[in-house]
Amino acid sequence: MSADETPGYDVPAVEAWLAGRVPSLAAPFTWTKLEGGHSNLTYRLDGADGAKSAVIRRPPMGELLPKAHDMGREWACISALWGRVPVAEPLAFCESPDVTGAHFYVMGLVDGKAMYGRADVEEWIPLENRTKAAESWIDALAALHSLDIDEIGLGDLGRRDGYIERQMKTWYRSWTSSAEAAQIDDPRIHELHDSLIEGMPEPGPATVVHGDYGTHNVMFGPDSTVAAVVDWEIATLGDPMADLGYAINAWVEADDPFIDKSESTSLAEGFPSRRHLIDRYAAVTGRDVSQLPYYRAFNRFKLACIVHGVYARYRRGQKAIDDDSLEELRQRMTGLIESAVADGQQL
After folding, report:
1. Residues 6 or more apart in contact with residue 141 via CB below 8 angstroms
2. May I ask the CATH architecture of the domain 11-108?
3. For the chain, how are helix, strand and coil distributed in percent, rounded to 5?
4. Which residue has better confidence, 133 or 259?
5. CB neighbours of 183 closer than 8 A, spacing ≥ 6?
């Protein structure tokens, strides 16, 4: 393939680099672009002998924020978690940008499919397997949160304390700094901020937290169980209940108020209830989940602030958007705030 067909990759240099490090991969490769992955440049590599395939990832081209698209973090996670949590097999990591202009890593190809919505479920997971699939999904998160971070070598992945406090500070500052441009400053956000700070539970020991755990970041194999958890670039150390709250928020149910959920994965026929998954997580980990409404409210507060910042950028004219899409963003923001308030009332 030419450089025009694989932007960001010097194909001969990468193939030569891999030849001495992953002998099971036989160059030259057929390079096939894969979609998804937070705009990272991700390709499937099929070896010339047809015996083994792999996936290569590097950051997008151009200037990046200091902690964005962290290939080293992803590599550290899958290397430490391999054999403990379902992840793709780690094959090679290149720390030098001299090979192709950026750090990159190569992992084994996973036979599976991520679930972005109900249509994916109906195509990939048979009705009779959906309880098994959902339980495998929550079990993978429980397995991640049950690992000793020092024993697996991830004790320096991030700070062990202050996870919720730092997140609250960051996203509340985002809201206040965007309020003028957005022309929206909902007083409930300030009330939520104060109540979340005041009612913050005492966290337990830090674990690895994925940060974006949902069915969109899990590959379900042909047997309908989790074959690999993917996209570890924002993983860190923190409060596992915050990770669970984020995941459970995404497991919407038909009678949930406020939030558009028409295409949600969890609404496919045959999946178990949110309560079933929460109880299963508690049984597997032995954790007290009674404070979960707090963490659900926290995640919705955080997401409302993120959407508010996006809305503000559109209002500033930094990106083009039509009026209907802008109104959808505003409604989503409002729905998240209303849901966070409702979660807080359960405490």
Report:
1. 210, 213, 243, 244, 247, 281
2. 2-Layer Sandwich (3.30)
3. 45, 10, 45
4. 133
5. 315
- Give ranges for CATH 3.90.1200.10 in the chain: 118-344
**Sign of the C-alpha dihedral computed for residues 214, 215, 216 and 217 taken in this order:** positive
What confidence tens digit (pLDDT) does each residue in 45-85 have? 998 888 789 999 999 886 544 455 689 999 999 999 999 99
Q: What is the DSSP letter of 158?
A: S
Q: Where in the chain is the domain with CATH 3.30.200.20?
A: 11-108
Span 300-310, pLDDT tens digits: 999 999 999 99
Query: How big is the CA angle at 145 (ends 341 and 112), to the nearest 5 degrees?
Result: 95
CA distances (Å), 270 to each of 130, 226, 278, in order? 6, 17, 17
Instruction: Tell whether pTM > 0.85.
Output: yes
One-letter amino acid for residue 142 of the chain: A
Instruction: Provide the sign of the torsion angle of the four alpha carbons 99, 102, 107, 110, taken in this order.
Output: negative
Average pLDDT of the chain, as a whole number: 92
Quote the CA–CA distance of 134 and 315 in Å, as a whole number.
39
CB 137 within 8 A of CB 144: no
CB 55 within 8 A of CB 42: yes
CATH of the domain spanning 118-344: 3.90.1200.10
